[in-house]
């Protein structure tokens, strides 16, 4: 399949808004290249970044989307420019240079990922291993074999890493989990590796559903994880002990009214993909819908929020 890569250089503050534009217009994958994150990962030693130099310009974030090269492409690209103009009217100029375009094949995209995606330890037990690399597991390791393909989610972004660390703290063996906006399926697989007995992984994007299904199969977890195409919670039935949504703040706001009715009494809602500036907004909205925030983790300008139903 042929894809068109669309890249926008933007500020840290506008990163979420730009990614939201791409997601809302049906991008098959969205990648955020955050130089601050790369430098932090280099310094931590958690990721083999020997091929990537120290990032000098840390003010510019590159948000890249992949759109199918089909009959809808022209309208989508025009809508990107219209939406970016609307964003800048609201918050001021937030782009550096012009929007960049190039045609790529799915194989080209995957090969580019392989230059930068290596074995990464996310928590004390959870380790992400790209399908093309070798890794000798240590005692206690729970290894997630992953090929992100055209779907978002490698575990190296702050939002995903913080979600995985929160999951390790709250998930007990036998719990049920809904993963909303599963992307590559990484959080659903992490939940299953940590002991969840039933995981429903949902994404509105068909490419993400296909890739997540492949990753679940690679990890021999098809008997635990069900991957389905759907919009937010509408593709699930019943209730869960943990609901995860690593999306963006505006979608979290849309999801909050439905959380209580789909969460077991002692259940936990983990919301991520939220920039720090939206923390107060999400906290207030959650309160309006009967949820209180019991824990917040922050890293690199992003937050993950752990919520429960108010007593």
Q: Please, could you describe this protein's structure?
A:
With 311 residues, the protein is α/β, with parallel strands linked by helices. It folds into 2 domains: 2-114, Alpha-Beta Plaits; 158-309, Vaccinia Virus protein VP39 (Rossmann fold, 3-Layer(aba) Sandwich), CATH 3.40.50.150. The chain has 9 helices and 14 strands. The chain has helices spanning 15-24, 35-44, 73-91, 106-116, 158-170, 186-193, 206-218, 249-262, 279-288, and strands at 2-10, 29-33, 61-68, 100-105, 120-121, 126-130, 142-146, 176-180, 198-203, 225-229, 240-246, 263-275, 291-299, 302-309. The strands form 3 sheets. It has a 7-stranded mixed beta sheet with strand order 10-9-8-11-12-14-13, with helices on both faces. α5 packs parallel to α6. Mean pLDDT is 84; it is low at 46-50.
